[in-house]
Structures are given as structure tokens and as C-alpha cells.
Request: fold
Amino acid sequence: MKKPIRILFVEDVPKDAVIVNHQLRKAGLACRTKRVDTRKAFLHELATDPPDLILSDHGLPSFDGFEALALAHEKCPGVPFIFVTTSPPAEMAARSPQPGATDYVLKSDLTQLAPAIRHALGIFAASPTRRKSNPTGKRDAAFRHLVHGIKDYAIVMLDPKGNIVTWSPGAKAIHGYGGEEIQGHHFSVFYSRDAIEEGLPELGLKTAEARGRFEEEGPRVTKTGKYFHASVIITALRDDDGKLLGFAQVTRPSGEPVPITLALPSNEERYRQLVDLCPCALLVVNSHGDIVFSNKAAAKLLGASTPEQLLNETLDTIAPPPDGQAIMARVREARERGDPFIEHELVKLDGGRVVVEMSVVPFVFKAKTALQIIAHDITRRKRMEKALLESEARKTAILETALDAILLIDHRGLIQEWNPAAQKIFGYARAEALGQLVDELIVPASLRQLYQDGLTHYLITGAGSLLDRTIELTLRRADGTEFRAELAISRVTSEGPPRCTALIRDITERKRVEAALRQSEERFRLLVEGVKDYAIYILDVEGRVATWNMGAERLEGYRANEIIGKPLATFFTPEDVADGVPDEALKKAAVEGQVFNEGWRVRKDGSRFWSQGILTALRDESGWLHGFAKIARDMTREKNDAEEIRQLNATLEQRVSDRTSELQAANEELEAFSYSVSHDLRAPLRHISGYVEILQTEAADLDENARRHLDTIASSSKQMGDLIDALLAFSRMGRAEMHQENVPLAELVEEARRELANDIKDRNLEWEIGPLPKVRGDHVMLRQVVVNLLANALKYTRTRELARIEIGAKTDRDKVVFFIRDNGVGFDMRYADKLFGVFQRLHRSDEFEGTGIGLANVRRIIHRHGGRAWAESSTGYGATFFFSVPKPRKANK
Reply:
């Protein structure tokens, strides 16, 4: 395939570029056109991507075709240059090649463009070395010959010192000098006397030499001394080694010549009349720093009601030191840089600040040396610049944090911006991507031609199928792998060539999820269709059946074609429909999201069944309700079983209630019997005890054996009394009212030790008492428990030479376990269940005294507290008694 011609087109009208491009393709020329309309863009293309051919319009608003020709000769001397213009100079009408430019073509007859290009490329291709060896003098002569007929521009060639070398007819028409009389003169003859004194001509040359170009608008002087306003461009000309050859000056009048009086009148009134209507603030400051003149714009800028109000102020008032003292130095530095204006902050009369762009020049006012200050308020511009900076910062933040690839593409298809997400998605670093053709970088080869044609057409014309819509396509990564992406292109509004922003999202994962979702939905559909025990169907937002599974057909009796589109009320009983139950269920599900309901439902054949189901509202990601899902099951058998169980439970509850009443009555009778028996036993026991005492007192002559029998009767009588007292205490403990409070166990232990002081006295005891927490219970009852257990430990350690008693507690999640451990005689764990029974003893009474009621009382008290009591022991190795009670309640905060 033949390599396309790379054409650089200097043109400010995109439509004309499209027309030219279309004409070349129509003529069969394979070409690739890049359009530029500024000097900067033109130079950039010449430096980075030299073209095969340059086309140029004659005149552009911000750039001139003749200047483009000069730059082309300087930067790319071997590249053909063809003017494509609407109104060429008169001498170009001869339709023959002009020295300097390869050719010209009228826009009104573009059929001549393709032959001119073929001819130009043929000429230059035939003699490349001749072209490169063309000396500068010949190029200058060709250039002079080309511009000979131009009369609306003054085109002048200057030597490095600024002396005039060539003179065009346009220069004669504008400035009034003939070629012979002006050549060799310094170009400063076009400036006013004041401008020459300020060094403006030298400043223009120095700026052009340093920067390559100097532009300004201002007054110029004709041969007759008349002034006119002109736009002037001075361009430095250098050879291939960078040596300065001279300058090209292009002057274009910007209006009809107007008389300008540069010598300011000495009369203040005439001066005021001249500048009072000037929109810029103008002040005159004398050598002492006093403001001696102000126009209205200056008064408004500095907050004065009238210009006269400022005449009482000094320069230090509006520009306080030290910044004010440096104004002139800054102005001089700015002038040396080619810019006579500086930015400065002035102080208004009310103390406020205003940022201005200002210039200060020496001045003679009323025959005295003074300074003239011209200032322009740029506060709004600074705000706009700040807003622009903030906008750029926001844009940068968006580019940096966006999850989608964001590309900025110019009219040539070159990438101008490449954010981090683009780097992550495509695998190219930003430096690698910038300046690359987007289609060659990320578009697969199979789609490249289709994409290139469409994108080129869109970028040039601003129209196309990609505009303002999202499409899916296949793109390519740096490693060559292809992936599916979502692309959205929008045009960037600007005055220059069209550009566009491309937002690219990698949808590989989304595609995978969508495929998995489709598979899941298909599996779910097959699963739902196969369920026979549950009715599963979907309702639309109006409550009409939208889907129907086999389980629903089996439960309700309808086939899918019979029920689709029917309302939910079809399955409800007439009385429920009349009460609005179906509609209420739908409304409640829509509000709460999900509703459980049960009740009698009606099948197709009219039979009823008990249904249990869930009605769920279906909403999309935005919360929009799009239907309901219903799952139901036949629970008739379960309901019947539940009813039967309910009836059985009711019968059982009655029986339990009756039995509880019987037990309560039996307990009350037992309590009454116990109380009555214990009281009735006291009377004969008192008689026995009384008569034994009488016998012991009066029968002094009884023998020893009879006295022993009397002692035995007395002892048995006392023991019987103790048993009756213990039995009475046990009986009362079951009926006593409990008073719940937080009880310190340590306090109970100390009270028990004081109560048992007689049993502790004269004993060799070793105590080990650990930390004891508080518990929840009745203080009196728990005190009795601790007394009984401690008395038990003292009694069964009586045979030990050294008795050891350990008291402690440990806390579980919701209870406290208290224990008393001793090293006494212990007991056989086989009989541990007898310990806490009434009158149950594991030792003989002649060994260890006791009634057999104490531990039974302990268990009864602990049970009433919701805990339990138990013991662990080994014969001869002591015993440990435990009980558990609830932890104390936490105080309310």
C-alpha cells in the first residue's frame, strides 16, 4: 500500500479544511491532513513531525501566510509550500509558480490543487540536493519576488542592526517612502520621537532576537509625518547554524490613518479634556510624589468621589513603601522583557486593596518632570484566573481519581491527555501515550480502518455516529490482549480545531458477571420450575400474576395460561376479598418490603386450604417498585395438627393446674400437720422433763443405776426438744417471706464466726478466707446457711489436732459459688445424696451430735434463691460444701 502524503494545512476555517481534504481524496491522492491555525502549532508540527507538503491560506486572524512561508523556508527548506487562498495578490493571478512559494491555488477552483501538489512533489523529488543547497540570498530574492505585489501589508527585510534591506510595494503604499530613498535607513524612522527616546525600536529587535518573534500594536509614522495605528510583527531570521541573518517586519494598518498628537499640551485643561474619557486610570505624580492630576477612571478606581479629591494625596498613599518605591524598577525590568506593564496592588482611599495592571513613564507636566501612571483594574481577571486554576485543580483531581480511562484527543487523532485509570486499563504510561495516534495505540488492527475513518470524519466535521452516546467495542491493551469496553465521546467546545474527550470503561468484569447472572437466572428458572411443594410466582406492580411454576399449578390448580394476568385476589376467599385483605397485603409489602401472611385460600376447584407465604416487594437499584415475589405452601395438615396439639395442650394445662392445686393443698396440709405435730409433741415432752427433774431432786436415796436411767430420760427428752425446734424452724423456713438485696458474703462469714464463738474458743484452728463478693438474696436466710455450714465444719474437725477451715468463692457468668472446706473426718461419697435430707445423718449421734435438720435447711434456703447446694468429700480427708446464688444486680446508671 502506497504511503499517504503528510500534509500540514495552515487554515483557520475547519470547513475549508474538510473541503480541501475531500477534493484531494476525490482526485485519488492518498493523504493525511493536519490543520493548524496558530504560529505555535505550526512551529510545533515543523519541529516534531515535518510534513511532506505545506498548504497555507493567505491571511489568518492571528497568523499570516507570508510569515508561515518565511518560517517554512527557515525550518523546513525542502518542503513544498502552496498557497490556497480566496483573494490572492494581483501578481498571483497569472497562475504560474512564484519564486519562494511552490505554487498557489484559488479556493474557488480547487480542481487545480491535486495537479499542483503532484507537480510540486515531482519537482522537489527530482532535485532534493539542489533544494538543500539553495543559498540564503536566493531564498531572500525569491521571497522578495513573491511579495512584490502585496499592497495591504508592509513587508520589510532588516539586517541584524535593524537597517532596511528590502522594500515591498506594500511598504511604499503604507509608509510613503520609495525603495531607493529608504533602503539603508534604520527602521526606527517608522516610530515617533517619544518612542525612539524610550528605546522602543531597539526593544523590539532585542525581543525578536531573544524570543524569535516580537508583536505589538501602536502608532507608526508615515513619510509625511502622519500617524496611523498598526499591528506589527518582527520575526528573527537565522541560518541552519542558528546565526542571526536579520529580521522580517510585517506591518498591517488596523484602521484609517488618524492624526495623533504625541506632544502633550502644557495646559492642564486641554490635557484633561484629552484623557478624561479614557477608560484606564491615569495619574500624574510630580517629583515630590504628590498627585497633581487624575482622570475620572482613576478617581473611580481608588474610591474617590471626584478626581480633585485625589489631588490631596501622595504616591505613598496609593502605593505605600516599600512596594511603592520599587514600582519604577519593576517597570524598567518589565520593559526590558518586552512588556511595559506590571501587576501591582494599590490602596484605595477607604483602605481597600485593588490589583491593577499598570505602567509608569517619565513625563513633563507644566514644564516640570513628573511620572505618568496608567492603571487598569484586573481584579475580575485575577478572580477568573483563580477560578481557572481551581477548575484546573478540580479537573486534575477528577482525572487522577476517576475509575474510567479519560482521554483527550485532538483533531488529528493524537492523544493529548491520559489519566492514571487509562494507564491501569491499557498498560501504557502517560509519557508513552501522549502524542500517539489513539487508533494505532488502543484499537485492534481488524477494526482500525473502520474506526479511523469514523473518528477522522467526526473530529474534522464535528458530526458522526459516535457523538453523545455510549457504545460497546473491542479495544487492545499494551500486551496485545483485547477486551470489551464501553466508550463515550463528547466534543470539547473551543475556538480552535475540534477536540474530543473519550471516556472508556473496562466492562470485562461486567460482561462476565452478566453472563454469570444469565446462567444463574436460567438455573434459578429451572430450579423454580422444578419445585412442586411451593408455589413460587411473580406479580407485577398491579398485583397481577406474571410468572407461574409447577408448584403453584399443583397447589392452586391453575395452569400458567389460565392464571397469567389474573389478580392476586383470585386465590383468596370471598370474605377476605370483601375485607380488602389482598390489596392490604400488597400495600404493606410495598411499604415494609416483605410481609408474612397465612390464611384460608381457594383452589380452582373451589376447595380450601390453609396457606402460609411470604410476599416480597421487588425494587431496582434506584428503589423503583417493579413487582412482587410470592412464595406459598399448603399448611393444612400442619394447621390441623397444630389445632389438635393446641387442644391437647389446653387439656394438659388443665390437668397440670388441677395437679398443682392438689400438690399445693397437700403441701399446706403437710405444713399444718408438721406444725401441729411439733406443737402437740411439746406438751408430753414438758411433762416428762418436769417429772424427771422432780425425781432427780426428791429421790436422793436412789441407787446409781436408777440415777443413770433418769439422766438418760432427761437427755433423750432434751434431744427430742431440739428435734422439735429444728423441725419447727424447717417448717417456718418454707413459709418465710424473702427480702432480696445485695448481701456481702464476707459480712455473713464474720457474723457466723461471732455466733459460733463458743465452739471456736480453745480450739487450735487455722483459717484461710479468700476474697468474698456480694450476692443477691435474703440476708437472714443466707446468714443461717453460712452458720450451718461453718458449724458443720467445726463439729467434724473436732478430732483433729490442728483444724484447717478454708472459705472462698468464685464468680461465673451469672452466679457466685461459695464453699467451706475442712480437714475433718469426711464422708463416703456413695451416701452424699442423704446429706441434705431431713433427719439424714452419716455419723452416729454418740460420735457427733446433731439433729439432721441443718443441711436440709441449707438446701431448702438455697433452692428458694434459685441456686443449688452440694458437697464433695473422701472418708478421712475432710469435706467441701458448696452452694451457688445469683450475682448482685448492677446499679442503674
About this structure: The chain has 31 helices and 31 strands. The mean pLDDT is 79.
